[in-house]
Amino acid sequence: MDCALCFFRFMFAKSKKNIYLCKQNKSIMAQSNIDRFKVTNLGPIAEADVEFGDLTILTGPQATGKTLFLETFKFHNDIIPIWLSSVQNNLKSDEEILDYYYGDNMHSIFSVKTKILENSIIDLLDIAKSHKSFLKEGYTIKRGNTTFYFPIDYIPDNVYYIPAQRSLALSEGRIKTSDDFINSPYVLRRFSFYLQNYVKTHSTKILKNIVPNYDFFNESEINMKRNAGSMRLHMLIHRQSVPYMAWSTGQRELAPLLMALENFRTPPDFPDFTDFIVIEEPELGLHPRAIIEFMLTVLKIMQTGTKVIISTHSSTPLDFVWTIKQLKEKGAKPSELAKMFDFKIKDKTIFDNLFEKTFKTYYFAPDKKTKKVYTKDISSLDVYSEDEDIATWGGMSLSADRAGSIVSRL
Prior knowledge:
Layout: E1 23-24, E2 27-28, E3 36-42, E4 45-51, E5 55-59, H1 66-77, H2 79-88, H3 94-102, E6 115-116, H4 121-129, H5 133-137, E7 139-143, E8 146-150, E9 159-162, E10 170-171, E11 174-175, H6 186-202, E12 221-227, E13 230-237, E14 240-243, H7 249-265, E15 276-280, H8 288-302, E16 307-312, H9 316-329, H10 336-340, E17 359-366, E18 373-377, H11 388-391, H12 398-408
Parallel strand pairs: 4-18, 5-16, 5-17, 9-15, 15-16
Antiparallel strand pairs: 1-2, 3-4, 3-6, 7-8, 10-11, 12-13, 13-14, 17-18
Helix pairs in contact: 2-3, 2-4, 6-7
């Protein structure tokens, strides 16, 4: 490993090797070829083994551990800044740190049998604790001949995480601060920080650039306006200011999601250190067509080289991926995707090398007897498969298939 290019990160891969750390000038590096993650014996999860594509979709019933898996993935990749943040909050014990990250009393889901890749949670925390010097000397990342220094709160995320509870980061249009959260998961607090950072630089141009072809807000202007002593989101419709709580449910769900995505896409003053972006349940509050249009934004993100991971209870993102696979198999052009969904696309670069991208889908499948969860690769999305989990996309189309079968017999 070339230490001259080092920066602080974890690296894991398919090989039998575990964690690779490399020190030089108080910097640590991890390689960016992260492609697989495995968790065993954690909460409802017996074994979750996921190989990431350029776009990875996780599906499965509620309470099967999808969020837990994704939070643990971020915990593994961003453990050092997470640990540094916990120490700043005067947390010392392993239990306190785990509760700080996962939520109140969540340390109890870990056992001696829990493995993150081949490591115990104690192994990971011990590695983090060995870098106490960062508390005083700061966190540095070296790229080439340039060294970047970051205050702890501003250390770039290896995994940029948009949680399903994102609307909780807003209180009547006001973006919450960390002091507003009590026993909430770290990813929600961090998400609130994303939004705070976004409005600092976009207070007069909110949501102007994120969706180039579809107007989720009916050509309205979104801005921050002082109300009741705080800056709050308002929508300007025909010169009438509409407060956040008067917006539709879909708009209230979508606004923080799009703000976070635009914050992610804003060109930084330093190289991009983020390898993954996690988006939980993007379908919340959205019409199926709006979900499809949102997937176009996902294609745009994929063009940056960042891998996207989506967890969902909607079949619409899978419809989108299945269509891409069908177009590729039939030798069509990627741009035909827009025609199939009747979209007018201005930015045709989102289709560049689309058929060279990898698309993975995993089903978090509960065992019928033990109720423990195992992941199943259903990436083929083959509707003619003899495997019911693959043919029904993890049960997504099961009710429709059964209804059709019943109707056909009438």
